Structure formats: C-alpha cells, structure tokens
Amino acid sequence: MKSGTLQLFSLFLLVFLFAAAVSRADGFSGRGLNEAEKLSIRQRQLLYYRDEFGDRGEKAWKKAIVSDPLNVTGSWVGSNVCNYKGVYCAPLPSNKSLIVVAGIDLNHDDIAGFLPEELGLLTDLALFHVNSNRFCGTIPHRFDRLRLLFELDLSNNRFAGKFPDVVLRLPSLRFLDLRFNEFEGTVPSELFDKNLDAIFINSNRFRFNIPNNIGNSPVSVIVLANNQFGGCLPASIGNMSKTLNEIILMNNGLKSCVPKEFDS
C-alpha cells in the first residue's frame, strides 16, 4: 500500500474509532462553552503542564523525551498541536465545531523517554500507539481519565513493573497490546472480564495460573506466549468458542493437561 493511501486509511480509521468511542461515553452538551470549559479544552489540546507557579507553556511530554534520533518531535513547536507529527485531531462528534486531539501514533520512531502523568489531560484520545520505541518506566495512573480510549498499543518498549491496572479502568478499551516489555508479576483476573476484542501480553515476565474466568473474555485473539504460566487450562475456555479465532500459549509453564472443552 502506498504511503499516501496508508495515511488516508489511518486517518479514516482514527475518525471511525473516535466516533465509536464517543458513542459509548458522554460528550459535551450542545450549549455554549463557558470560560472554565474552554480552559479545560486548551489544557487537553496543548499538552501544557501546570505547577504551583502556573502555566509555563512547556510541553510535558516533549520534556519527558530524552532521545529522538529521527527528530519526530522537531515539529512539536507552537500551540497548534494538530500539526505535530504523530498527533491526529478530529471534530468531537457531539460538537463538530470543537477540534480535539483524538489520536497519537508514534510507532517505530525509536524515541526514548517516559510517559508523563499529564497525558491524562488528553481525555478525548481514542487511539494511543507508541510501539517499537524505547519508552520506559510505568504507565501513568491518570490514563484512567481516557474514557474514550479504544486502542492502546505499548508493545516493543521497555516498560516495567507490575501489570498496569489502569487499563482495567478504561471503559471503551477494545484492543490491548503490552507484548515485548518487561512487565512482571501476576495478571489480574479482571482482565478477562473486560469487553476486549484483542489481548496481547506475550513476551513479558508475567507469572500466574490462568484464572477460571478466562472463559468470560469475548476476545477474538489472545496471545499469552513467552511468560511463566502454571497449572492447567481452565475448562471455562470452552465458553470462548463463539468469538475466539486464535489463542497462542507457547513457551509457558503450562502442564500437559488440556480440558476436553478445548477440542469442542
């Protein structure tokens, strides 16, 4: 696919996902905006941070980037963030006159740094893709403000620590990709109760027994490979037969016992 066609397709997909996410959450009302609401919108759009001395006009995320060999953030200058490379804006479906940051796509940009808590100000995000970079640290707790987030791709970075429980508090999330990082510890059973279409948590350092409620998940694809899972596959996996197209479990600590439901 030619690059121009690919960009148009990506933009169309972003607008589609943004509209789908907004349809699941409350938007702004049709009345006029007061000054407090306008200020809130500016904060969400401009990626500014505030401290006890007030707004210093500095970009929180740009300051959290320590290496950018491709100079992706070279365009991150001025207040019009819709012109920033990797930042995509779209009209808010509930108020077409309001242009907001609806997506961030920095895939394969070799950027090193971390994700600051101020990203939680971008409450209209439907898509956040930063795969194949060198981001480290943990996932911001304030991501739980991203009530419209539909796709979260953090794969192939250097994120570490426990499973980021903040993803369990994202009501619109349908696609989760945490593979090829350094997350460790257990995976909360609540993950499999979420209405996700895809779960990729392979190639980390997770250690846990696959919980009985895995069969509650409506996913079409789930990849758990290259971790350390113990025990057997729960019989509830048979409940996934109507939605599941692919499951990958290789290179784990699973025992040889396979429930008869797995063949049904």
Automatic annotation (TrEMBL):
In terms of Gene3D superfamilies, this protein maps to: Ribonuclease Inhibitor
Q: Does the keyword Acyltransferase apply?
A: no
GO terms of biological process kind: cell wall organization
Q: Which keywords fit this entry according to its UniProt record?
A: Cell wall, Cell wall biogenesis/degradation, Glycoprotein, Hydroxylation, Leucine-rich repeat, Repeat, Secreted, Signal
Q: Where in the cell is it found?
A: Secreted, Cell wall
According to its UniProt record, where is this protein mainly located?
secreted
Occurrences of domain Leucine-rich repeat-containing N-terminal plant-type (ranges):
60-89
Signal sequence coordinates: 1-25
Q: What is this protein called?
A: Cell wall hydroxyproline-rich glycoprotein
Lineage, highest ranks first = Eukaryota, Viridiplantae, Streptophyta, Embryophyta, Tracheophyta
